[in-house]
Amino acid sequence: MINPFVKCGLAALLVLPLIATGAVAAEAGPADLAIARNLATMLQSARAVVSVNQDLINDPALGDKGLTGAAVLEKAIANYSKATGRDPNTIDPASYEGRLIQAQMDAVVEVMDANQSTINAKGVGFKGFIPATFTRLVAEAFEARVGEEASMKFTAPPVLIRNRKARPDTFEAAAIRDYLEAADWPKGQIYSAMVSEGGQERARIMVPEYYVPSCLTCHGAPAGELDITGYPKEGAHEGDLGGVISIGLIPQ
């Protein structure tokens, strides 16, 4: 029987096509925007692997799913290369972008390997290891690795937040409200701004993502009905803003 949760959750939004469009915002420099797009693409590329394997993960009859950190990273790299035309392993590892991309790939491996007992549990159907959970854990592992060099979070409009850890900060909430949710904001366009945080200039970059049909299993109609995770559905529609990859960088 097909699991009704396949690809649902805030993290199972529009995957690679958004980044491939190369939408550009005005206030961060081109180098910052390029790095942010590539980090977002890597996160989406890895999340896509978890998303398309939800039936496999939730198969109670099967033990080892073969979704080790190394296996998932290999597929993520293939997705990333297809979207960008570049193998991430060819990025100079000593460069700022190279250090961040490597930290992100290492975070993917760390999260998958740390959750093998959950993913491979026999006799258990829905594991709760959904794309949204994976995305949050990767972002947290990434930040633990890079320290003050960068930040990354998957957030959303406040009314859509299901996990308190994903709540938008003041900058993110304002950017979502005043720009990304505005009726005249070009769909898919990144919002960016240079801000001062702790006495240091930072490039804050917001990459919007939108609901696709598979997301509506858990986030669509009827509003208020409980989905498979136990949360009430939001009554969302295809194309609504469903989430944002929020990235902070040292300006380049």
Characterize the structure shown:
This protein is an alpha+beta fold and 252 residues long. The protein has one domain (16-249). It has nine helices and four strands. It has helices at 16-20, 30-52, 54-57, 69-84, 96-114, 116-119, 131-146, 170-180, 216-219, and strands at residues 150-155, 191-197, 200-210, 241-249. Strands 1-4-3-2 form a four-stranded antiparallel beta sheet, sandwiched between helices.
Based on Cα principal axes, name the global outline. Answer: globular
Percent of residues in helical segments? 40-55%
**Major beta sheet, strand line-up:** 1-4-3-2
Q: Give the strand content.
A: 5-15%
- Class by SSE composition: alpha+beta
N-to-C series of helices and strands? HHHHHHHEHEEHE
**Whole-number count of domains:** 1
What is the typical, i.e. mean, pLDDT?
A: 89
The separation of the N and C termini measures: 50 Å
Question: Could you give a short account of the major beta sheet?
Answer: 4 strands, antiparallel
Unreliable residue stretches: 1-26
According to DSSP, the number of beta strands is 4
So how many helices? 9
- Radius of gyration, in Å, reads 18 Å
